[in-house]
Amino acid sequence: MTKPADAKNAPPTISFGPRVHKSPYFDATLRYGAKSFTIYNHVYMPTCYSSPVEEYWSLVNDVTLWDVSCQRQIEITGPDAFRFIQFLTPRDMSHCEVGQCKYMMLTNQDGGIVNDAILLRVREDQFWLSPGDGDVLMWASGAAVNSGMDVRVFEPDVSPLQLQGPKSPHVARDLFGDWVLDMKYYWLKETTLDGIPLVISRTGWSGELGYELYLQDSTCGDVLWERVMDAGKLYNIKPTAPNTIRSIEGGLLSYVSDITLQDNPFVIGMDKFVNLDQDDDFIGKVALTKIKAEGVKRRLIGIEITGAPLTGSNEHFWAVSKNGEQIGHVTRCVYSPRLKKNIGWANVASEYSSIGTKFYVAASDGDRHATVCEAPWVKAEIRIPPLD
Q1: Does residue 191 lie within any of the structural domains?
Q2: I want to staple 251 with a disulfide (CB 3.0 to 4.6 A). Which of 30, 63, 177, 376 is the partner?
Q3: Domain shared by 66 and 82, yes or no
Q4: Domain assignment of residue 233, given as a range
């Protein structure tokens, strides 16, 4: 007879209900063994199928498929669509062509980061924002109300999958043809697969080679998932979640963790995405001009943490202290099996942000030494090599 689990020691669970959205791939993720979920942009997102380390090696060595329809798209259309996009971001978007993608930050009137997103310019006056966790649809809708611009802001029937890993070009070629190998990094193309309408982009949140498949008909989610998994069998494809280890290694920052509304682009080292000299106005331009002139009081920096390998990642911000005084906090940290060291990101007072600075972090198992280091540790893979 099986002994019932001790209720006090049972792991926490997440309940399902109609208040939170299920993705078009939800049933497929359950069939393929998703063991845990989180809620991201009001959508259930798988967080683990096997283990973070196993999924890391699948991503680094082979190819993986992620259900990321939690990246709920915001479509902006209309005669003033481009002007409105520029109004939302400090990045100069004047060179964004049709068929191109751009990383962008969305800032508020104080220069704080409302979110970061990938912008897809699908057509001349049709844009998609693919954001991190946060109510960007509501914020953009509000920004449009008194903008005086002729735009429509809404959520389209678009559900992304990410196909990521060094063998992803093999799978994409087998699915779509040789043209996907010629796609430039951060560009997109509309296509179909067995009649399923898609937008394919050479983007992703993995640091490895990859594509995003933007499904434009949610009724085809299960069919698309199986079609991709079938094509990937030859290349040892595995369904996984976005991988924390690889994202930290590659400096792929996470909104609400590494980036918050209290941060501005200069704090997180994204100065190159701020153009204060452009003629167009944008939300937060006055504030960011002042911040740049005065300098920032905090910075996001890479750190290496001593001691035994961390088990899992931090569930909350760990305090960072020096000389008995708290100077900041660790945003995310993890043990990298490839680098064989504990690495992470910390938001600290600017005077403690120089390479080589040492301090303590209040880890879950007690205080540990940490040192500011060069980051990211592993640069993103961009160039697709010749395929066999």
Answers
A1: yes
A2: 376
A3: no
A4: 26-71+157-247
Q: Which residue has the tokens 């509309």?
A: 190
List the structure tokens of 258.
């590494």
Final residue before a domain boundary, out of 209, 227, 247: 247
pLDDT bucket at 388, cuts 50 / 70 / 90: confident
What residue has token string 């590659």?
250
Examine the fold and report which residue of 108, 126, 154 is the final residue of a domain before the chain moves on. Answer: 154
- C-alpha neighbours within 13 Å on the C-beta side of residue 48: 10
Q: What is the CATH number of the domain that holds 132?
A: 3.30.70.1400
Please count the structural domains in the chain.
3
Number of Cα atoms under 13 Å in the Cβ half of residue 147: 23
Mean per-residue pLDDT, 339-361 = 98
DSSP labels for 355-386? TT-EEEEEETTEEEEEEEE-S-SSPPP-PPPP
With respect to residue 9, please indicate whether it lies within any of the assigned structural domains.
no
> How far is 338 from 259, CA to CA, in rounded Å?
25
Tokens at residue 304, please? 């290496």
* Residue 56 within a domain: yes
Q: Which tens digit of pLDDT belongs to each residue from 263-283? A: 999 999 999 999 999 999 999
Nearest 5 degrees, angle CA 267-CA 307-CA 303? 15
Q: CB neighbours of 30 closer than 8 A, spacing ≥ 6?
A: none
CA 119-380-103 angle, to 5 degrees, is 15
CB 128 within 8 A of CB 156: yes
Residues 6+ apart with CB under 8 A from 211: 162, 163, 164, 168, 172, 180, 200, 201, 202, 203, 204
What pLDDT, on a 0 to 100 scale, did the predictor assign at position 11? Answer: 75
According to DSSP, the residues that pair with 48 across neighbouring strands are 36
CB-hemisphere CA count at 13 Å for 199? Answer: 26
* CB atoms near residue 383 (< 10 Å): 6
Residues 211-222 have pLDDT tens digits of 999 999 999 999
- 181 contact partners, CB below 8 Å, separation of at least 6: 169, 172, 173, 384, 387
136/163 same-domain check? no
Residues 305 and 350 in one domain: yes
C-alpha radius of gyration, the chain, whole number: 21
Do 31 and 97 fall into the same domain? no
Query: Are 53 and 163 in the same domain?
Result: yes
